[in-house]
Design brief:
The structure is a homodimer. In chain A, strand 5 (about 80-90) and strand 6 form a beta hairpin. The relative contact order of chain A is 0.20. The first copy, chain A, has helices at about 20-30, 70-75, 115-130, 145-150, 195-205; strands at about 20, 35-40, 45-55, 60-65, 80-90, 100-110, 110-115, 150-155, 160-165, 180-190, 195. Chain A is built from 5 helices and 11 strands, in the order βαβββαβββααββββα. Chains A and B meet through strand 2, strand 3, strand 5, strand 6 and helix 3 of A and strand 2, strand 3, strand 5, strand 6 and helix 3 of B.
Chain lengths: ~210, ~210
């Protein structure tokens, strides 16, 4: 059984839901598309959603070089990143025991700027995350596009996962109440792709 | 056209995606189940996922009275709350223009403790959010359960939304590349409810 990698990465509330093994952590990060990145700018907390990808033991985010938040992170602002997959609504027989099934990761640390080959590799991974094999099919970033993109990486050295699964916890005296209890599963589904035909067609017509 | 309610609530990156009207803001908040609540504890940023519900112009979260983060918020720590609905993956003909369709809200402020009738009303709204009509069917909170629950509210006075929809932005010179481009819709679906039968059955057998 793995333990917490650091004191601040230790799950404090409901420690029986804590998971410190690498496999659980990586599975959650590899399934999610968005992370929630918090830092402190001018003394105040700020949290924004960002695309991200994991490569080995680092989490990469990308953004515009014009982003005030990314500039703060580049210069060493402490960060906290959270990723949550919501798996279900947990309906108990008492109001108090309603809950949600989820898998989440929280990571603490300081981001580093990725450059050169590491930067390109992260951009490739971000595209491959959207569609496998896509990087080789699309137009690669130009020198100007590369310069306009900041890629930052967070080492996953202080990260922990928290997982809730299964049925509601109930007070024994509630079990006979005539109330439906159970789990409503929630899942994130990919729909039927919608091709960007309109503009290709307009382009063909304007020739 | 509504403007930003405050300078820090003004969308800085890609301001054409900003939405400051109440209807957009409320629709996003009312569709999401989880918010990402950031604050500063001991000088460092922390962000955690939380169930929440909107009532009128306030956002309510609930948690255990034992939560270190809720205690910090109760005593006036500045907070930033973010809610994101991911609607699609945007696949462009160039790596650079890949994006996501999303609707997000960011709200800044200071939480207040809800008590008495306001507290009960927020607990009811949290349950009703999971299933309409459920509050009247389940066992109501006992005095002990009420005492163990903290409900905090954030006035939505400094909140803004950001929305991306539609097809990829493309460089005109990329439009004829032989690359599939378009949107892969993403949606959060409720599955078939799974009843907590096992324990009711076990209970019946043990009589």
């Amino acid at each position: 059984m793995d333990g917490p990698p650091s004191e601040r990465a230790r799950v404090q509330r409901l420690p029986d839901r804590a998971r410190y093994d690498r496999a659980t952590l990586e599975a959650i990060l590899d399934e999610a598309f968005v992370c929630h990145l918090a830092t402190v700018v001018d003394g105040a907390p700020i949290v924004i959603p960002m695309m991200f990808v994991r490569i080995d033991d680092r989490l990469y985010v990308h953004g515009s070089t014009g982003s005030r938040m990314l500039r703060a992170l580049e210069t060493g602002a402490t960060a906290c990143v959270e990723v949550t997959l919501l798996d279900g609504l947990v309906l108990a027989r008492s109001a108090f025991h309603h809950s949600m099934n989820y898998r989440s990761v929280i990571a603490y640390g300081t981001f580093e700027v990725a450059q050169g080959e590491e930067k390109t590799r992260a951009m490739e991974a971000l595209i491959e995350r959207i569609e496998s094999g896509r990087w080789d099919r699309v137009r690669q970033p130009s020198r100007r596009e590369l310069a306009a993109t900041t890629i930052l990486s967070l080492p996953l050295t202080e990260a922990s996962a928290k997982v809730r699964t299964g049925m509601p916890v109930e007070e024994p005296s509630d079990l006979e109440l005539p109330v439906w209890a159970g789990v409503v599963p929630l899942a994130f589904e990919r729909g039927v792709p919608v091709a960007d035909l309109a503009r290709s067609a307009a382009r063909a017509l304007s020739r």
